[in-house]
Amino acid sequence: MEKKHFVYILETEHNMLYCGYTDDVERRFQAHLNGTGAKFTRAHKPIKILYTKEFETKSGALKEEYRIKKLTKAEKLKLINPQ
């Protein structure tokens, strides 16, 4: 089975957003909830997954993660809910 690659955006307490990369979104979300995901999500408890996007390659996913992390919060919200 071919490995999948994802970029995801989480909503955290205090209405903050966190963007990351993973090959298993649910496992990574559980790691964030358990305090073993990332330094940011240890300080800002994650509430829910707002956005995921699948990529064929790790490189493609990491490039998109980098691009998203440079966006403003308003731009990230528009990406999540493009109306």
Model description:
With 83 residues, this protein is α+β, with helices and mostly antiparallel strands. The chain has a single domain, classed as GIY-YIG endonuclease. It has helices at residues 25-33, 39-43, 58-69, 73-80, and strands spanning 5-12, 16-22, 46-55. It has a three-stranded antiparallel beta sheet with strand order 2-1-3, sandwiched between helices. The protein is globular and about 35 Å long.
Brief write-up:
This protein has 83 residues and is α+β, with helices and mostly antiparallel strands. 41% of the residues lie in helices and 30% in strands.
Which terms summarize this structure?
3-stranded antiparallel sheet; GIY-YIG endonuclease; 3 strands; alpha+beta; 30% strand; 83 residues; 41% helix; 4 helices
Q: What would you say the CATH architecture is?
A: 3-Layer(aba) Sandwich
Q: Looking at the structure, what is the overall shape?
A: globular
Rg is: 12 Å
CATH superfamily: GIY-YIG endonuclease
The domain tally reads 1
Main sheet properties: 3 strands, antiparallel
Measured as a percent range, the helix fraction is 40-55%
Distance between the termini: 35 Å
CATH class: Alpha Beta
Number of helices: 4
Mean pLDDT across all amino acids: 95
Strand content: 25-35%
**pLDDT under 50 segments (min length 5)?**
none
H-E string: EEHHEHH
Q: Indicate the structural class.
A: alpha+beta
User: At the third CATH level, what is the topology name?
Assistant: GIY-YIG endonuclease
Strand order of the largest sheet: 2-1-3
The number of strands is: 3
